[in-house]
Structure formats: structure tokens, C-alpha cells
Amino acid sequence: MRLVLVTPPALEPLSAADLKSRLNIGSEMADEIADALIKAARQMIDGRDGWLGRAFITQTWQGSLDGFPCSYIRIPVPPLQDVSVVRYVDSAGTQQELDSSDYQIVQGAAPYIVPAFGRSWPATRCAADAVMIEFVAGYGDNPEDVPEPIRSAIALQASALRSLTERNLFLSQDTVDGIGTKQYIVGGNAGAAIDAAVAALLSTYRVFA
Asked: Is residue 80 located within the same domain as residue 113?
């Protein structure tokens, strides 16, 4: 299924205040920077192109096929909230809208739609994008609707992105003449440790096609 994002999420899974609180960051980070880090971290794992392949905050997608399959149509980018409309181009070349009573939505980890009992998919013109499905996906409208492991992973990834701009990211010790020596809790393996923590938090949520 070819996918196009119709309506992106209105909010991020974390606010700037949430991120600062989780990372114990004060006013030294501007809200604009925090928001940018959150968005970048979220885009790495959210939606069609994200590593998880699922939607977080409510968003609308349009999928297209060259025709109806023999059986079911899998809806990518779960969790599925609702199928808004199913349209198709009939054999005469006229666009039609499938009545919602003609198909059944089957929820679950890998949601899909099938013809309703006693029905079958209609015939379509043999053409690209002959079938179009618009659907709404995501855990909900609010940041708190997103599972906590995903929100924690976004915070950790945002922290890692922030660290890339820090001058002494990979030093375990830094000596400044006339001032003294500063010891760091983590050294050169900091990035690997964060990546491992993020992967562990997200592992059960990844969608495999």
C-alpha cells in the first residue's frame, strides 16, 4: 500500500516542560530547542517512515492500491482508530465510495478490513491507485495517550541529540588550567548505552510488515 500523510499529529508526545523535567534541565535550554529535539526524536520512530512503523498522536493517512486484493486489506501504521472512507474506480472509470456496511474493520496488533459477511470487493478498473483508503491512526489526541515506554524513549533520544552539541560529549575527564578537573559519569560509550536503552524501551512496539 502506498501511503500519504494527510493530517499530521497536532501535538508531540512530550512538551518542552515534560522533556526538561525528565532530564532535569532548567532554563539553560530554550523551549524552542527542546521542541525541536522532541520533534526530531519522534520523527525517527513515528509514522510510516519511523523505526516503529506505528502512529503516536492522532493522524490521518491515505493509502492507495491498484485494485482490491483477494481477501483482506491490511492497514499499516497502527494503532487504527477508524477507517474514514474507501473509494474505488469502477470498471467504467467512475469513482465510487464503498458504503461502510460493505466492509468490516478488524482491530488488533495488525488491523485490517475485509468484506462484510455475504459481500465481496467490487470490480475495479485496471489502473494505478484504483482503490483509495483514508484512515485515522494513533493512540489518541493527547500526549498521555502514548505508552510511557515510547515517551521515555523519545526523551532519551532527545537527550542524545542534545549531547551531540555538547563540547565534551566523549570525554570521561576534562582538565581546565587554573580551574581544576571535571569528572564525567559516562565516557565514550554514552551513545551506545543510550541507543541500547531506547531499543529496549521500543522493542515490543515495533511493527514488522
From this structure: yes
Cβ-defined contacts of 13-22 (< 8 Å, 24+): 13/38, 13/42, 13/56, 13/57, 13/143, 13/146, 13/150, 13/151, 13/154, 14/38, 14/143, 14/151, 14/154, 14/155, 14/158, 15/143, 18/143, 18/151, 18/155, 19/155, 19/158, 22/152, 22/155
Q: Are residues 69 and 128 in the same domain?
A: yes
Q: Of the residues 117, 137, 157, which one is the last residue of a structural domain?
A: 137
100: containing domain:
59-137
Tens of pLDDT, residue by residue, the chain (209 residues) = 999 999 999 999 999 999 999 988 888 889 999 999 999 999 999 999 998 999 999 999 999 999 999 999 999 999 999 999 999 999 999 999 999 999 999 999 999 999 999 999 999 998 999 999 999 999 999 999 999 999 999 999 998 888 766 544 444 555 555 666 655 555 555 556 566 767 766 776 777 76
